[in-house]
Records
---
Amino acid sequence: MSADTAYEALTVETLPERLKDVTALTAQVGEDPALWQVEEVGDGNLNLVFIVTGPGGKVIVKQALPYVRLVGDSWPLPLYRAFYEYHALIRQAARDPGAVPAIYHFDESQALIIMEFLAPHVILRRKLIAGEHVAGLAEFLGRYCARTAFRGSELSMSSPDKKADVALFAGNVEIPAITEALVFTDPYFDAEMNSHTEGLDPVIATLRADVALKIKAQQALQRFVSNTETMVHGDLHSGSIMSTGSDSRVIDPEFVQYGPLGFDIGMLCANFLMAYFSQPAHRGADLDEYQDWILGVIADTCRIFEAEFRHLWATERTGILFPAALFEDQGHDSSPACDAVLTGLWRDAWVVCGIEMHRRCLSLAHNADFEDIADMSVRASLEARNLLMGAELIHTADTVANAQAVCALARDYNGKDVL
Ligand code: SR1
Ligand code: MG
């Protein structure tokens, strides 16, 4: 395909002929397209995802569709999201080498990225529902979140580079707009695309009558849209992580934007908390052990995040913020300044965490942790614990001591019959 070929969605049938001249692809799978097998495996809400297998190996071909796959062509969505995903992947690979799949090829006009086929990785959410452990998960995620947060900010970047990047990613308008509506706003009123599990109405009525809660959620939205502290993945849930029993990678950063330092880790913790609350429906005798493991992952991820952030503060603080000229060069310890930055970061993170716990049960695009529970009364009672804990986190985010306190709160709600 030449660079000016008009966009056309690939199919299993057309892919070999259309991509046979892409050398970055043939180098991986082999040159004869007649020998390729093509499978479409996209199970996300937005895109086409193909596995192409040839004599030389396998690759992933990901192509954006001009609409939201989950909803259909009644909801158009710009193809340019592939451009931002590609640029996000390049930056994530530089800021945390090895954390994302290798990128072989990008075709802007076809909104198409060809990347490493991860094997035997599977989507982390599926592992959490199946009760599987992933060694090194907290270390990987804590470091990834800290490195991308720190190295994408003016704590590290030069001011001209940061401003250029903010300007570049500011063009990603409609995709973050989904988050602005679905995550921050729709859960708190009867929005058109909302749905929820039968039986939850009393809990939802309580949340939606809570004006202070809505103010906190909208203040978090205000920070999300106007605070360009760092480049965020923007959709860091357990469906955006692929793992084996001992290796993990982050995928799918098409919701990238410059946003608050605490956004990604907050959303991530919410998805582990939802995995935790859903476990009574998925486990048997191993329930307690597995729930303990999930809470351990949350606590360790946050602990490692903070240790890595402090390490980068001490060793890579090369940007305009909190310069050594103001602190170390004056004989002043800068760690109280780092404490202050982290205090604001965690406040933002815990509010986002609570909001994400709400949106996955109340607006469009629920998560399989709860959706796979066939018994509606069981699902509703587990979601109710999650919703009420989310509200408490939003209200108390300023005073949450640390991730261990969040885990203790989760244990409390897990033992309550709130419905
Ligand atoms: C209409 S898109 C809904 C959700 O799918 C994506 O994966 C994001 O999580 C988004 O919020
Ligand atoms: Mg995604």
Note: The CA atoms of residues 9 and 200 lie 40 Å apart.
---
Amino acid sequence: MEIYLDTANVDEIREAVDWGVISGVTTNPTLIAKESGRDFHEIIKEICGLVQGPVSAEAVSLDVEGILREARELAALNPHIVIKIPVTENGLAAVKVLSSEGIRTNVTLVFSPLQALLAARAGATYVSPFIGRIDDTGQDGSDVLADIMDIFRNYQLETKVIAASIRHPRHVLEAARLRADIATVPFKVLKTMFRHPLTDHGIERFLADWEKVIKG
Ligand code: G3P
């Protein structure tokens, strides 16, 4: 399973890229809004330069023509850009056109297996089920992800599944167990994935013992 970073913060992306573990980035209007004062296109271009992999940038128009206009503008900025589009009738109509133009799409705000199936049929490159937000409703986000993975495997659909709205490392583990193609994780969750008390304790012990070796 690939790991993407779910952020628009270039400092976080730079750090995670240096760690060698992320291969893409996803953003959304809420994440862009957190980078107040910066131009949307400039942020996206800078992120593309850092990650050198797929970078999802969201179109906010609700009509087909508007989505297509935004998508073409964004796609022209950098070949790494993937257009994030919510799963609506107009959204999927736009996905179909963009797919025929070779512009990659990430169908977002997916909360059910049937929405994911529709996105795949329309030609989406990626589909993003929001695991955490499904959990928030009392339903199990992992069950929805499992159904999507089953359906996509049953019919060998080429659309890749990005487990999104990841809130904690357990979500990442569940996504990997279910063979999601990608999990997009917030920086805080990524850092938590490194941590284990026995690793910290082990390093302390090794260093203490090494001191004894040096001192003889
Ligand atoms: O990847 C989607 C993500 O940004 C939404 O996360 O925590 O707002 O549900 P959250």
Note: The longest strand covers residues 81-86.
